[in-house]
Amino acid sequence: MSSILVLGGAGYIGSHTVYELIETGEKVVVVDNLETGFRKAVHPDAKFYQGDIRDRAFIDSVFEKEDIDGVIHFAANSQVGESMVNPLKYYNNNLCGTEVLLESMVAHGINKIVFSSTAATYGEPERIPILETDRTVPTNCYGETKLSMEKMFKWTANAHDLRFVSLRYFNACGAHPNGKIGEAHNPETHLIPLILQVPNGKREFISIFGNDYETKDGTCVRDYIHVNDLAQAHILAMEYLRKGNDSNIFNLGNGVGFTVKEVVETARKVTGHPIPAKEEPRRAGDPSTLIASSEKAKEILGWKPKFDDLETIITTAWNWHKNHPNGYEA
Ligand code: UDP
């Protein structure tokens, strides 16, 4: 039986996808440089190689040793703020890494790839909900590199025997209901894990960035989608490619928006902690509202998100964070 190669399978969304793949009976090989991922997040039944996709000899050796049917690619840097102060790190890891990977895939005749993209490819949206065909003008370097990666796939697919699916995630959140894996970033920049640091005693209050957006309570609106639902979409996307379908791009979100204040309020309810909040100036590069239309993924991939309720999503996140206040570190 051949395997699925998961690049970045020790990271947040990668590790959840590996768990789902193994639960559906797939054989999985994980590659991760462990720069931001955690060895402990990798499912014990996955075969693990520590290495960097920018290292051509290394990635060639994985394709030579393993029988790989398709690739799921999460191996990239993903912090908006960092990408603005250190753009070349993003060009190097995200774009050069993908270029080396594609060279190696083409050389080894590996012709299917599912790729982790982002709503940050859209920038300030021209309408809500956002469709895959809408304008893409990223407002930060992270989104720009992801859009460039999509274009690299497009032109490579045009020239070679290779097909891709790009999945544009909205706000990934939550944790595996089995409690074994969850969200851990160092440093943490995402709203829900930062809020949950307050009831965990790791932070005094949550900062609310901006209270003068044109939204119902002045704070930014985002579409929060559970990480296990994202993981399922990768499995469906690989099936779609296995059936011989053409390259495609899909949004992944719940199609419902919540303000920052609503997220904080829901976390208070879930944790039973007052979670003090402090209103602060806007964070650079934040669009006011991002909500996905995921009709295309539902229709073509048959994707059915299960976690459509914010309280349930935050409950799974809290279940992980309260038992792992230091993430994967002891
Ligand atoms: N946010 C906030 N306080 C924080 C972290 C984030 O108010 O400490 C806001 C942020 O400005 C954005 C929303 O929460 O409007 C979601 O931010 P996150 O970084 O989680 O995801 P993004 O939408 O940037 O991908």
Automatic annotation (TrEMBL):
Keywords: Carbohydrate metabolism, Galactose metabolism, Isomerase, NAD
Superkingdom field: Bacteria
GO MF: UDP-glucose 4-epimerase activity
Pathway: Carbohydrate metabolism; galactose metabolism
Xref: Pfam families: Epimerase
Enzymatic class: isomerase
Gene3D superfamilies: NAD(P)-binding Rossmann-like Domain, UDP-galactose 4-epimerase, domain 1
Residues annotated as domain NAD-dependent epimerase/dehydratase: 4-253
EC number: 5.1.3.2
Cofactors named for this entry: NAD(+)
Annotated catalysed reactions: UDP-alpha-D-glucose = UDP-alpha-D-galactose
One BP annotation, GO: galactose catabolic process via UDP-galactose, Leloir pathway
Quaternary structure note: Homodimer.
Family: Belongs to the NAD(P)-dependent epimerase/dehydratase family.
Name assigned to this protein: UDP-glucose 4-epimerase
Originating organism: Hespellia stercorisuis DSM 15480
